[in-house]
Design goal:
Strand content: 5-15%
Helix content: 40-55%
Oligomer: single chain
Structural class: alpha/beta
Radius of gyration: 19 Å
Distance between the termini: 69 Å
């Protein structure tokens, strides 16, 4: 009888949300998932579901805007096995416009969408770099690449994208890969709730997207699983949009060219 090596640990923040749940499910076959969220009840349900399917999962409740909480969570995660993967998925937007922004709302946007991710990385820096094949994936947003409202949130996500590149450059010598994923509009519960109030909301959103379909949470999760896997072993320092072509150019922009009488396309 031989001793079985423990699975490496994947820490997934925001694991009680739709995208976080999908990421946890995609990673569970190959990792012990340390599911992290501030919502203890929802988080326990996610961990219980994964366990019921035969996977290893642990719920770690944490307020990621509190560094002392992050430190405690990281200590607990490290007891589960070798931490080789961190997915910084937690995020939310506080204010739609600069006019409506206050010092408090700015602090919230920066704390959750930028500072939490960097503080979590630093708390797990030692195991991620010790393994020689660690991986960091930050869930950014197309808002960090273009201007779509929520300016403070967008600035935080742009900072996260830059930080991802900086980590890739500085920590590559330790075998650590760092990449970002930039979702566009994803069909989460929040968007489906909006659709209940406004049945045309998805059609309105699709007007901006060249590929006339919106990503589902599993599309983001599949991208994370690819970047975390061996097929992406030489990919680091990138930000990969999963946005149905939005950042390539929007079909909702003025179409003066296509309306020209000389255009026969």
């Amino acid at each position: 009888m031989t001793d079985q090596k423990p699975k490496s640990v994947a820490v997934v923040t925001g694991a009680a949300g739709d995208i976080g749940i999908a990421i946890a499910r995609h990673l569970a076959p190959t990792h012990h998932v340390a599911a992290v969220d501030i919502d203890a009840g929802a988080l326990e349900a996610v961990a219980a579901e994964l366990k019921a399917d035969g996977f290893e999962a642990t719920a770690l409740t944490c307020d990621l805007t509190a560094p002392i909480e992050i430190s405690r969570m990281a200590t607990e995660a490290k007891t589960l096995g070798p931490v080789k993967l961190l997915v910084n998925n937690a995020g939310a937007a506080a204010t739609l416009t600069l006019h409506g922004m206050t010092p408090d709302s700015l602090a919230k946007d920066l704390a959750l969408n930028l500072e939490a991710a960097l503080n979590t990385f630093k708390a797990l820096e030692a195991p991620l770099t010790a393994s020689g094949d660690g991986c960091l994936i930050n869930i950014a947003s197309v808002n960090g690449l273009e201007t779509f409202g929520h300016p403070a949130y967008s600035a935080a996500k742009a900072g996260l994208i830059h930080a991802t590149r900086a980590i890739a450059v500085e920590y590559g010598k330790y075998g650590l890969r760092a990449n970002a994923v930039a979702p566009g509009t994803v069909k989460t519960r929040a968007w489906k709730d909006r659709a209940a109030a406004n049945p045309g909301v998805f059609d309105e959103a699709l007007g901006w997207y060249p590929l006339k379909q919106l990503p589902e949470p599993h599309d983001i999760a599949a991208t994370v699983a690819f970047l975390a896997g061996p097929a992406a072993r030489c990919i680091t320092g990138i930000c990969l949009p999963v946005d149905s072509g939005l950042t390539a150019g929007s079909t909702a922009l003025p179409r003066t060219f296509t309306q020209s009488p000389d255009f026969d396309g």
